[in-house]
């Protein structure tokens, strides 16, 4: 499944579908600057891997929609190819998210203190065991569980809510040696 995403255009196509909730190959092509036929090929690959599915037809249009609202990019630690694929894919996602944050910072919501106070950029260094890092990652994911479903169902959005993004990474420092066992 990870290998199906290891192509920059497929990552971009999924991002468009996440934004629009459903779109045709032509609509996606307009957003990503590719041909509809090239997008159709990549959409079929994403469908085979279970990331997207066909939505209800709109007249003659045949839109696609994402199957999941989020994606777990963790590799199989016993499979070196899975680890390499996950690293390459993770790199694509980090680059995309970093670009999005940089674009946001170029035009922050000046003049609206309520929303300006919501912006946070945090970098932390911690010493933790592998179990603690896994738990930290799971807790970060769990923090947004109560907000799920609001993208696809506008009736679940509270008054005054806005679309927002959370981008978090948890990773060990490969240059750091584990603390010796006592």
From TrEMBL:
Q: Organism's domain of life?
A: Bacteria
Q: Which InterPro entries match?
A: ArsR-like_HTH (IPR011991), HTH_ArsR_DNA-bd_dom (IPR001845), WH-like_DNA-bd_sf (IPR036388), WH_DNA-bd_sf (IPR036390)
Q: Where is this region: Disordered?
A: 59-80, 149-182
Give every HTH arsR-type domain span: 1-89
Name the CDD domains on file.
Answer: HTH_ARSR
Matching entries from Pfam families are given as: HTH_20
Task: From the Swiss-Prot or TrEMBL record, give the protein name.
Answer: Helix-turn-helix domain-containing protein
- Species annotation: Agrococcus versicolor
